[in-house]
Structure to design on (803 residues):
């Protein structure tokens, strides 16, 4: 008869505690003697690695770095991390606390908040301009409703294109405010003009649209032609341009649809006969008197200039030539350095310095930085070389200096002031080379701002002494250049080391395999993974290694043993020879070549483009055959851009020319518009030249702004006559005041906003002041040329295409 029930047998296999590991038997004798692990060693719960030390505000801590996955929303990730940590805190043991001292998304959040603030300010200023010119609150409401309608449509277009809310898209929306109201202003101004003739609202709106639908479509096509070519640039720059250009193009299209449908309806419903000018308030009457004088002066000036059209065209061409030459001399850059709320201090001790020495140096860094006004928190990591892709290195460390919130800082606590002060203060620490650097403008592209050069050995050798020599020569030369603020290389090829050679013949004679020798050395001096154990519901690894007191001297290596095939213990001292030598502590490869990284910063008033050119000249003079250099991180992206933008500018002008040629039905009339486009560059060139010392240069945001600044010229060229002078000035002033908040920006992301704002602001002023003057003479010259050609072909003026 079988058993009445089944029972399970549970076999205890994996050891689960240090006490159990200590009881593991490592040897038994013939008489039953037992040697346990606790008899020859000690067992403890410890860290997986002891190569780094993490401290927060001078106190021991454990750091956890969290990075967003590709395509994830940074702000959502940050919020989820905060929420998760709030839940985990409840289960922490007594005495354990958590904090998030270093959060790069605060800069993103604050920057977006500042851009939204700029958006509201720009919209308000634009509406003020419209009210002052139209002098009718009903008329003002029609363009006012264009802003939210088109912006909502712009966000829908962003979602359809897969774009996120970021600097490029928000800048596009800010600039689009001045664009989207233009079509509405033209429709309203046309309807108001017809109402003044005695038409009803519906008749006035219909008549205005019969006249303006063609120009609205033409202007929209021109705008899209200006921006669309930039969407096809490759690389990181192309991605930023694409988002800006496509959002602007989408808003222009939406603005045209809005102007052709909603605006006439609103004009018909809302507009009423205006109050006679003499019955308007004091401000409006005063404004009209001033404006009328300006309009009369403008009409007289245009008449005089058109009568001397050849001379005026020559003057304009001379201005264009001077502007082009001057623009080519403006320092170039890629992205401006932003105040992202923190800085990075790179610490490099002498070769072979221990982790304890590095930690003591970082403690001094903390003592200095915590007393610096404007500094909130300090995160120190000893044993990490930030210049070598965060590789473990005992003689290197990094300090993340977190600054106070932008609103809490006072005078002298801006990024550049803190940067200069901390570099001077930390540079006085004699034990190490310490360099404070701003973070890279784009997170993840490099480890810091400034330039990054890779010096390579390309002759197929690993002659690290040669690499060290040429790297030192480049750095030494760079430090003598007044155009460079600093230069530093982390590569060290002469770190004290010991060379250990195995006597292979003796090893084989003593019945020991080379694998056993290497495994013993690795286990004693490093560590060897042997097992796993379960603790706290998780699986951890078990490592064995020689105790630290047993591997402090060279003699300790000789006294270590390895077992041969006969079970005998052979001292390693009989198998190896130890001799002092030098070599690199880290070997980095770039494009599979041994490389040394050089980083640096341009001096105040020197652009990144000038710094790259200077470093290239130094490298070419210094590097011997068999070596070379390449750019990495942000420097690589800057060099990748090259002259692509100028090609895109030319392509945009070509598309604009073709669109205008189709609209005018003439190959010659659009030339007067195209020739006037460079006139808008005069303003940005003057601003860039004047503000170079403050860090403004021809960077990516400036180039984006130049595209936006060229837009009103096209509008002015098509309507440059006295009858259209008022709407031209109104739309231009609306655009100019719309970017004033960008020019006056401060706080997070201010560098980018000032760069693009100053460019558009000065470009618009130059465009408005010069284009309305020189386009009519250009047009007169081209008109006469075309009529001359028609006359030579025997055609009458009536036979030529309508302009």
């Amino acid at each position: 008869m079988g058993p009445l029930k089944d029972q399970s047998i549970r076999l205890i296999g994996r050891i689960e505690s240090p006490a159990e590991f200590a009881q593991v038997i490592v040897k038994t004798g013939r008489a039953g003697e037992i040697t346990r692990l606790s008899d020859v060693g000690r067992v403890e719960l410890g860290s997986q690695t002891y190569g780094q030390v993490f401290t927060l505000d001078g106190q021991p801590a454990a750091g956890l770095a969290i990075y967003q996955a590709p395509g994830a929303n940074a702000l959502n990730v940050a919020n989820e991390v905060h929420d998760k940590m709030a839940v985990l805190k409840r289960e922490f043991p007594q005495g354990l606390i958590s904090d998030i001292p270093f959060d790069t998304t605060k800069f993103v959040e604050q920057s977006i908040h500042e851009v939204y603030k700029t958006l509201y300010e720009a919209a308000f200023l634009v509406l003020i301009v419209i009210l002052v010119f139209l002098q009718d609150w009903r008329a003002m409401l029609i363009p006012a409703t264009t802003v939210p309608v088109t912006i909502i449509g712009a966000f829908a277009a962003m979602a359809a294109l897969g774009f996120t809310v970021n600097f490029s898209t928000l800048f596009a929306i800010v600039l689009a405010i001045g664009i989207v109201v233009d079509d509405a202003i033209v429709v309203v101004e046309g309807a108001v003009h017809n109402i003044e003739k005695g038409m009803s609202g519906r008749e006035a709106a219909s008549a205005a649209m019969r006249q303006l639908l063609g120009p609205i479509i033409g202007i929209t096509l021109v705008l899209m032609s200006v921006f669309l070519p930039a969407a096809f640039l490759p690389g990181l720059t192309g991605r930023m341009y694409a988002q800006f250009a496509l959002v602007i193009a989408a808003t222009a299209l939406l603005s045209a649809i809005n102007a052709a449908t909603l605006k006439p309806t609103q004009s018909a419903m809302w507009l009423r006969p205006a109050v006679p000018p003499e019955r308007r308030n004091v401000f409006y009457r005063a404004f009209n008197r001033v404006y009328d004088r300006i309009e009369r002066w403008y009409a007289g000036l245009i008449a005089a200039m058109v009568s001397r059209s050849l001379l005026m065209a020559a003057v304009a061409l001379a201005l264009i030539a001077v502007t082009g030459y001057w623009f080519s001399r403006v320092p170039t850059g890629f992205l401006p350095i932003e105040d992202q709320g923190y800085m990075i201090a790179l610490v490099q001790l002498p070769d072979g310095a221990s982790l304890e020495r590095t930690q003591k140096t970082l403690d001094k860094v903390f003592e200095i930085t915590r007393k610096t006004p404007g500094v909130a928190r300090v995160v120190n990591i000893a044993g990490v070389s930030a210049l070598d892709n965060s590789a473990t290195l005992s003689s290197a460390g990094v300090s993340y200096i977190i600054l106070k919130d932008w609103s809490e800082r006072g005078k002298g606590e801006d990024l550049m002031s803190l940067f200069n002060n901390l570099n001077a203060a930390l540079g006085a620490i004699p034990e190490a080379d310490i360099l404070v650097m701003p973070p890279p403008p784009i997170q993840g592209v490099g480890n810091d701002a400034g330039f990054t050069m890779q010096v390579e050995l390309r002759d197929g050798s690993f002659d690290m002494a040669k690499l060290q020599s040429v790297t030192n020569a480049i750095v030494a030369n760079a430090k003598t250049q007044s155009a460079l603020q600093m230069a530093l290389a982390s590569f060290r090829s002469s770190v004290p080391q010991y060379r250990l050679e195995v006597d292979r013949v003796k090893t084989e004679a003593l019945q020991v395999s080379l694998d056993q020798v290497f495994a013993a050395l690795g286990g004693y001096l490093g560590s060897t993974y042997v097992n796993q154990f379960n603790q706290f519901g998780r699986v951890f690894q078990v490592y064995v290694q020689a105790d630290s007191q047993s591997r402090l001297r060279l003699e300790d290596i000789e006294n270590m043993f390895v077992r041969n095939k006969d079970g005998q213990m052979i001292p390693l001292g009989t198998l190896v020879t130890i001799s002092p030598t030098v070599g690199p502590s880290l070997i980095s490869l770039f494009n599979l070549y041994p490389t040394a990284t050089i980083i640096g910063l341009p001096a105040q008033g020197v652009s990144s483009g000038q710094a790259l050119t200077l470093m290239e000249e130094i490298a070419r003079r210094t590097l011997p055959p068999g070596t070379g250099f390449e750019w990495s991180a942000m420097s690589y992206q800057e060099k990748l851009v090259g002259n692509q933008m100028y090609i895109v500018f030319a392509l945009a002008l070509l598309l604009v020319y073709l669109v205008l040629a189709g609209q005018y039905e003439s190959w010659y009339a659009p030339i007067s518009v195209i020739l006037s486009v460079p006139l808008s560059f005069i303003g940005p060139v003057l601003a860039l030249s004047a503000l170079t010392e403050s860090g403004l240069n021809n960077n990516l945001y400036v180039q984006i702004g130049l595209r936006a600044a060229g837009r009103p010229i096209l509008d002015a060229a098509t309507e440059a006559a006295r009858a259209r002078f008022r709407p031209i000035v109104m739309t231009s002033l609306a655009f100019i005041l719309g970017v004033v908040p960008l020019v006056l920006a401060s706080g997070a992301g201010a560098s980018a906003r000032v760069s693009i704002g100053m460019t558009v602001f000065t470009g618009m002023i130059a465009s408005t002041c010069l284009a309305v003057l020189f386009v009519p003479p250009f047009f007169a010259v081209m008109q006469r040329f075309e009529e001359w050609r028609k006359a030579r072909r025997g055609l009458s003026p009536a036979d030529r295409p309508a302009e």
In short: Residues 692-721 have pLDDT under 50 and may be disordered. The two ends are 113 Å apart (CA to CA). The longest helix spans residues 750-792.
